Amino acid sequence: MSELDKPIVVTLGDPAGIGPEVLLKALADPSLREPGAARLTLVGGRWSLIHAARAAGLTLPEIPAVASPEQQTGQLAMVDLGGDMDDFQFGRVDARCGDLAVRAVEQAARWCLAGQSAAMVTCPLNKEAIHAAGYTSDIGHQEILARLTGATATATVLMTPGLKVVHLSTHKSLIEAARFVTRDTVLAKLRLTQSTFARWGLSSPRIAVAALNPHGGEGGLLGREEIEELVPAVAAAQAEGISATGPVPADSVFNRAIAGEFDVVLALYHDQGHIAIKVHDFHGSTTATLGIPFIRTSVDHGTAFDIAGRGQADARGMVAALDAARALASGQLARL
Asked: How many domains does the chain have?
């Protein structure tokens, strides 16, 4: 059985957020029913889909129950982890919701590791809820997946048509993120980007490294990280055959990438990359995890507790995440 013959497993995220709603809306998208469309195995609490459908006025499709992706025969199935809550409320941090969401991610990862699934796609978690559930060392999906797989080097890549951004760091304060900008950490991320993109079908990606300081540091007048850390990292990467350029001032590098000069930008901290992606195409953006032994894509938004249960959530990101998982599983990164 080829990878594309296996189902893609989809986690429902925090039930109190918009994950179940955007998934239901995505399942109604015609592109997911076209010939050759991926088979999907949902994992989470079936009750969360029922609540979301009722609140948003959506039709709940027929979803056969299975115990694992290997048992699935049709286009859509579900592994129900139970956990129904009589006092459930949308938009409320609840440890029980956090626990259910993490258990779904753990189960999906185990199936991917066992070769039962082609990829996993995740709906959003709520960081407060998973911490309340006792997962205090897990900040988000990336940390959970690193724990489960034993991965020591991971990264987040954000993708939207025309722009891809890998992050040197994500869940760090701005001060900590700046301290993380060293020759060795940057070189390691360049190596990881090169190897992962090659596995996804882009053998020699053109990688631009964003500068940390305004105007690239102005020759050291506005900071020396470019001179002491970034230039040596890029030079070392080039010596290894990696097509790296930089550091390029952050106020121009993303525009140059959109224009086609670079395949991907290495951003140095969370907001540097996220703002560029979300301004360029908020609803079409998705995320994927580098450094783990299987494909994981996700929506590029959070649980949106402020609109959860109101039927207002936009599902374009969920459709894009499902499409991205299939593309990466078939080595078609260049299509995204």
From this structure: 2
Record the pTM: 0.92
What 256-260 contacts at long range (C-beta under 8 Å, 24+ apart), as own/partner pairs, is 256/208, 257/163, 257/164, 257/208, 258/162, 258/163
User: Domain residues for 40?
Assistant: 1-151+292-336
**Does residue 287 sit within a domain?**
no
* 120 shares its domain with 27: yes
Closest CA to 42 of 70, 80, 82: 80
Tokens of 4: 């594309």
Q: For the chain, 336 residues long, give each residue's pLDDT as a single digit of tens.
A: 456 689 999 999 999 999 999 999 999 988 877 777 889 999 999 999 999 999 999 999 999 999 999 999 999 999 999 988 889 999 999 999 999 999 999 999 999 999 999 999 999 999 999 999 999 888 889 899 999 999 999 999 999 999 999 999 988 999 999 999 999 999 999 999 999 999 999 999 999 999 999 999 999 999 999 999 999 999 999 999 999 999 999 999 999 999 999 999 999 999 999 999 999 999 889 999 999 999 999 998 999 999 999 999 999 999 999 999 999 999 999 888
